[in-house]
Amino acid sequence: MISQKLADARAYEERYGNAIPKEKRPEYHLSPYIGWMNDPNGFSFHNGMYHLFYQYYPYDTKWGPMHWGHAVSKDLLHWEYLPAALAPDTEHDNAGCFSGGAADLPDGRHLLMYTGVISTDDVRKNLQVQCLAVEENGEYRKYEQNPVLDQSDLPEGSDPCDFRDPKLTRKPDGTYSCMTVGRNANGLGQLLYYKSPDGFHWSFDRVIVENDGTYGKMWECPDYFELDGKYVFLVSPMDMLKTETFYSGNATIGMVGSRKEDGTFVPEKVLPVDYGLDFYATQTLLTDDGRRIMVAWMQNWDSIMDTGEDMPWTGSVTVPRELHVKDGHLYQTPIRELESLRGERVFIEKAEIHDPVSFEGVQGRVYDLTLQIHPSDGQFSKFDIRVAEQDGIYTSIVYRPKENRLAFDRSSSGTRRSVAHIRKMHNIHETEDGLKLRILLDRYSCEVFINDGEQVMTHRIQTDPSIGGISFRCDGTAVVDIEGYSLENA
Ligand code: DQQ
């Protein structure tokens, strides 16, 4: 038997979610079945399929009491919706089933670990505990002995109202671990590590790293793993102050560092994971072939825009990205499976760009565009790429080599809202081959990978999806190799 709350969510999905036509959704990014989504959750490979759950409120395009939506995929690009997996329907999660992770049990069942939010008279004092749900024939049954971690499992001084987002892992020796975020007595985020012999009985192990006030206040959605001989800590800090490297607000940080003998983490390089306006709450998965793949919510609490009355859903997940560490730096590239969606190749070698120009075959809204901009050598100060363009509507990516700057600007994208639309990156550099940009367009987004994923910028665009012009212009002469593929209907 499922609860009335879960049955209601599923009935709503079937009625309204099924009615959304394919062209009103992204082609290769996951969007919610219906209504609102935020963080990706439970990113895992189970029973021959990738599973992606998400923070979900089906009934509106705004945040509401959190459910878990659910989708599966064979290639991480084509997603099939499954019925909502969790609803806030027990005494341990009556104010929401917040973010969490997933892993397999030895008998092959899928185990979810999530944050249950327990309501109190003052919403700011709602309690947060960690709960389990165990799969049985495709249904996720909440564990009778929930919660499995509560305030008695926190280190001294940590706040029981900010204890969330367990990232669950089954280790090679068959035991389990999870990382959650906590808030210490100074109001600052901490990464807490818990261990379990079986996934059901948990004990606190240690604080792995703590915010000294440099990176915002509370932290959210942690992930911590070994990669290419280094340790990587991904986290989403709240309330950042602007610095030379970071913008203010809710950010995502990638720390590359090492592990001390006592199991704590020492960051060595700390940078934004993504420099765009629409990125938050990362989660990773290790594939069977050893790739560390990251997804994130393609939106941010600071950039939420009204999606308009006729949009039945809001929020989506970034393209899955393969992570690597090279020379202590975190790189991300779109998963290689994306290449299987490519249509016919269009290639223009050494195009000389000055006046506004478009190229035959280089257009479309669901498009994979790679530009190798040859070394600028003082030949220009502004190179402008416009996508989703038609009749004065466009989104631009502007490269200014003399200022080492790349700017994303969606203020002319047809938006009627005055939120931040421009993001600038100030630390762009050319290699001996110049600057390489890979621009991934889908109906509602534009992700820009710079120099093979050394830096990335992620943005949503709300321009009518039928608008698909692409053009280039330059105030001097830019020499550019252009390679493009449609990704539509693959
Ligand atoms: N979103 C969830 C929390 C998490 C936050 C609630 C981050 O679990 O900390 O929807 O976006």
Detailed description of the structure:
The protein is built from 1 helix and 32 strands. The protein has 490 residues and is mostly beta strands. Strands 22-32-23-28-29-30 form a 6-stranded antiparallel sheet, with no helix packed on it. The chain has a 5-stranded mixed sheet with strand order 4-3-2-1-19, covered by helices on one side. The radius of gyration is 22 Å and the shape is globular. The mean pLDDT is 97. Bound molecules: 2,5-dideoxy-2,5-imino-D-mannitol. 2,5-dideoxy-2,5-imino-D-mannitol (DQQ) binds next to strand 1, strand 5, strand 9, strand 13 and strand 17.
Essential attributes:
Jelly Rolls, Tachylectin-2, Chain A, globular, binds 2,5-dideoxy-2,5-imino-D-mannitol, 490 residues
The helix fraction, in percent, is: under 10%
Structural class of the secondary structure composition? mainly beta
User: What percent of residues are in strands?
Assistant: over 45%
Q: What is the 3D form?
A: globular
Strand order of the largest sheet: 22-32-23-28-29-30
- CATH homology-level superfamily of the largest domain: Glycosyl hydrolase domain, family 43
Query: How many beta-strand elements?
Result: 32
Quick rundown:
The protein is mainly β and 490 residues long.
Write the layout of secondary structure elements.
Blueprint: H1 4-17, E1 35-46, E2 49-57, E3 67-73, E4 80-86, E5 97-104, E6 110-118, E7 127-136, E8 139-142, E9 164-170, E10 176-183, E11 189-196, E12 203-210, E13 219-227, E14 230-237, E15 253-259, E16 265-272, E17 280-286, E18 292-297, E19 313-314, E20 321-326, E21 329-334, E22 346-353, E23 367-373, E24 383-390, E25 393-400, E26 405-409, E27 422-425, E28 435-442, E29 445-450, E30 455-460, E31 469-474, E32 478-486
Parallel strand pairs: 1-19
Antiparallel strand pairs: 1-2, 2-3, 3-4, 5-6, 6-7, 7-8, 9-10, 10-11, 11-12, 13-14, 14-15, 15-16, 17-18, 18-20, 20-21, 22-32, 23-28, 23-32, 24-25, 24-31, 25-26, 26-27, 28-29, 29-30
Bound molecules: 2,5-dideoxy-2,5-imino-D-mannitol.
